[in-house]
Design a protein that fits this description.
Layout: H1 3-16, H2 22-35, H3 48-58, H4 62-65, E1 84-87, E2 92-97, E3 109-112, E4 117-118, E5 121-122, E6 128-130, H5 134-137, E7 146-149, E8 151-152, E9 160-162, E10 170-171, E11 175-180, H6 186-194, H7 196-205, E12 207-209, E13 212-214, H8 217-221, E14 224-227, H9 230-275, H10 280-287, H11 291-305, H12 320-327, E15 356-359, E16 364-369, E17 386-388, E18 403-405, E19 423-426, E20 428-429, E21 437-439, E22 447-448, E23 453-458, H13 464-471, H14 474-483, E24 485-488, E25 491-493, H15 496-500, E26 503-506, H16 509-534
Parallel strand pairs: 3-10, 17-22
Antiparallel strand pairs: 1-14, 2-11, 3-6, 4-5, 7-9, 7-11, 8-13, 12-13, 15-26, 16-23, 17-18, 19-21, 19-23, 20-25, 24-25
Helix pairs in contact: 1-9, 2-6, 2-9, 9-10, 9-11, 11-16
């Protein structure tokens, strides 16, 4: 990219960054230009001898030995003819997994985890620690080490960052340390990993399990790339740093303006919904411009719905205390909020006088567990029986197509068939999704609960749609995050007792119905706007 092109890019940045999602695309474009040799004048020197020399000096490393019989993959990029192709393991002195020792809030050595990699950079906030030990001696980071996230969601697996000697640090087991030969510029290799070619490679080689994807060290060693001479690598890295710094400055200005605009959007939409303005749909469409707007409005509406600020109580609604009293003989639990030791808890936040805080168990008559039969990888056909996958109940709406067909020798348990009107909850999922619930509007026949899904039976006088909203509220999410068990963030569990203790803000039945009607109206609008933005 010549200097005139750079000036033109700078002049147009303010317009480009106003387009939703453009910042990440623009950053990646810079990386793509970098690894295809289009950011600085190319050296006339052929890099083949330089790369061969580096490979020769690394051939004794474990990562290089594994590649002795591996054919060089295609790099997927039209790189300059003077650059030489190789694989990451061939120019590395070590590709090593991090420590699996349990960390704590204090200790001698900070331990970087996958959450510390943000936007291709290291974020040193929210650190965990370990006491120094002989095991950590070999897992300490050095200036220039690349950290690669080997396990994460499908969208995030393969993210990476370069450690620049910010202080003594180690790294956790979901990260891989790549230590390059001293004659290779780590930040240049990092450009390859973060480029479109790098992301496409990650999606191609990853393996998928429930809620997470994985790329192992062997695959990482086979990552293909092309290198120019070392001096050209340095020039490219410097030009990329200049461009990304410029983008960061413009992004900060745009973000400040966007935060103010979004606050006005949420406030206006909230007023329209709460006041039942007849021109709600037309006005909301004028205000909501981006997917982030939609997400923010959605979160705000949920919070208003379960705090008594979306509707007004009517005297004829009665009191929630009457509803709870009538349900006492059939409900699983008493109406007091308690912790796991039976100690009384304070209310999460104030409610209208006709509402009450109750544990989920005080408005449930039963909880039914599912089954884990042997099943095929494919979804069921119409005349077959199937069992729900955990993803059927993870995203705020029931997704019946997320299922697996039973093996033919399995006898279905018909009493576990999902029915329209069911309230389902996930007892095992990722840390973000465990405890999430869905209301089943319609259910195809011959579809059963899985062992990771529970069916909740509400007491008479409770709208299951409202209970679903309440279970998705911030206070409920905080409860599940606090009470979930499991050592891995990719698979957490909540027991039936934990679910029964979930704090539920409960209005009288008539107000439950009004809340559900208003939320349904707005969610329908937001779904339509999402689809239009995606199209």
């Amino acid at each position: 990219m010549i200097d005139g092109d750079l000036v033109a890019l700078c002049d147009s940045l303010d317009e480009l960054l106003m387009v939703p999602g453009q910042v990440s695309r623009l950053r990646r474009t810079v990386l793509d230009l970098a690894i295809s040799g289009q950011l600085v004048p190319n050296s006339v020197e052929d890099a083949a001898e330089y790369v061969s020399s580096v490979v020769e000096r690394c051939k004794g490393s474990k990562s290089a030995k594994k590649l002795a019989s591996v054919e060089q993959p295609q790099i997927g990029v039209d790189a300059p003819a003077t650059w030489a192709t190789t694989m990451l393991g061939c120019i590395s002195t070590g590709i090593v997994y991090g420590t699996s020792l349990k960390t704590s809030e204090s200790g001698d050595v900070p331990v970087l985890r996958m959450g510390n990699i943000q936007n291709q950079r290291l974020d040193f906030g929210n650190l965990k620690y370990l006491p120094f030990s002989a095991e950590l001696q070999d897992l300490m980071l050095a200036d220039g080490d690349i950290l690669f996230n080997r396990t994460n969601s499908a969208a995030l697996v393969g993210k990476s960052a370069v450690f620049h000697g910010e202080g003594p640090c180690s790294f956790a087991s979901y990260l891989i340390r790549v230590r390059l030969h001293a004659d290779v510029e780590p930040d240049f290799v990092h450009l390859w990993l973060g480029s479109s070619a790098g992301r496409a490679w990650a999606q191609r080689v990853k393996t998928d399990a429930i809620g997470q994807s994985n790329i192992n060290g062997t695959n990482l060693g086979q990552f293909p790339l092309a290198l120019p001479e070392r001096a050209e690598q340095v020039r490219i890295v410097e030009r990329v740093a200049d461009l990304l710094s410029l983008i960061d400055e413009f992004e900060a200005e745009v973000n400040e303006s966007e935060v103010r605009r979004r606050a006005v959007t949420v406030a206006a939409c909230t007023s329209l919904v709460r006041d039942r303005e007849p021109l709600l749909l037309d006005r909301a469409e004028e205000l909501i411009r981006t997917r982030e707007d939609i997400n923010e409005v959605e979160r705000t509406v949920f919070e208003l719905a379960v705090s008594g600020r979306l509707t007004s109580s009517v005297g004829s609604d009665g009191l929630t205390s009457h509803l709870v009293s009538r349900a006492r003989t059939s409900a699983l639990d008493a109406a007091d909020l308690v912790n796991g030791q039976g100690e009384r808890l304070s209310d999460p936040y104030p409610l209208p006088s006709s509402w009450e805080w109750v544990p989920f168990g005080a408005v449930l008559t039963g909880i039914e567990a599912g089954w884990s039969p042997r099943a095929q990888a494919r979804p069921k056909d119409d005349d077959e029986w199937g069992v729900l996958k955990v993803s059927a109940c993870s995203w705020g709406e029931f997704r019946p197509l997320e299922n697996k067909a039973l093996e033919r020798d399995q006898v279905p348990r018909t009493h576990l068939e999902v029915q329209a009107g069911d309230l389902l909850i996930s007892r095992a999922n990722t840390a973000e999704l465990v405890g999430r619930s869905v209301f089943v509007d319609r259910a195809p026949p011959r579809l059963m609960l899985s062992d990771k899904t529970l069916r909740l039976s509400p007491v008479d006088g409770c709208n299951p749609r409202y209970l679903n909203l309440a279970n998705l509220s911030p206070s409920a999410r905080s409860h599940y995050e606090r009470e979930a068990t499991g050592t891995s963030s990719s698979m957490k569990n909540v027991s039936q007792k934990v679910i029964r203790r979930t704090p539920i803000p409960l209005p009288p039945r008539a107000e439950q119905d009004r809340i559900v009607a208003i939320v349904d109206e707005l969610m329908g609008l937001l779904r339509r706007l999402r689809m239009e933005m995606t199209a």
